[in-house]
Amino acid sequence: MSQLNEILAFNKSFVENELYTPYVTTKFPDKRMVILTCMDTRLTEMLYKSMNIKNGDVKIVKSAGAVINHPFGGIMRSLIVAVYELQADEIFVVGHHDCGMSAIQPDKLVEKMIERGVDSQTFDVLKYSGVNMDKWLEGFSDVEESVLHSVELIRNHPLILPSIPVHGLIIDPTTGRLDLVTDGSIDKN
To answer: What confidence tens digit (pLDDT) does each residue in 2-49 have?
Structure first.
């Protein structure tokens, strides 16, 4: 069942009553930073509260597991736009404990796709087109290693200058505690 009608009704009231006014800001992040984090629902407010971030402070890029799976894909493009167009001077990669990507089993996910109606022949077409579904849907077993992998991919990207700090952290989605994995201010290549 779609939530669309409920959302549109709420939004109409939100706009008519000018409830948006406390959130008005510019497109430029006040704290001049961009955060790559996971799409996990527990982080929707927890991440912001635990890092003392309010609306307008940062750019947020989300992906499953805070993973960058291609150096020239949409996630990396978003980080580059944040830095060069939207005035972000620091990049934070924030993974989290108990991440769903640590339990992903590509073969089981493909089974779920087929159960929901994706034609099984589609996977043959993808395979013959050069798409390795196991690799593309692959999760990770160690969140610290995963954060470091994303950090290193960003730090070593040809379009990211070495002067841009890239930090790695892990958040506890229950308490908000942040553990430092790497400090981009001092851990330079």
So the answer is: 899 999 999 999 999 999 999 999 999 999 999 999 999 999 999 999
Whole-prediction pTM: 0.91
Strand partners, 144: none
For the chain, what is the HEC assignment? CCCHHHHHHHHHHHHHCCCCHHHCCCCCCCCCEEEEEECCCCHHHHHHHHCCCCCCCEEEEEEHHHCCCCCCCHHHHHHHHHHHCCCCCEEEEEEECCCHHHHCCHHHHHHHHHHCCCCCHHHHHHHHCCCCHHHHCCCCCCHHHHHHHHHHHHHCCCCCCCCCCEEEEEECCCCCCEEEEECCCCCCC
Give the β-pairing of 178-182 and 166-171.
antiparallel
Compute the distance between CA of residue 82 and CA of residue 93 in angstroms, rounded to an integer. 14
Query: Position of tokens 């790695």?
Result: 168
CA-based radius of gyration for the chain: 19
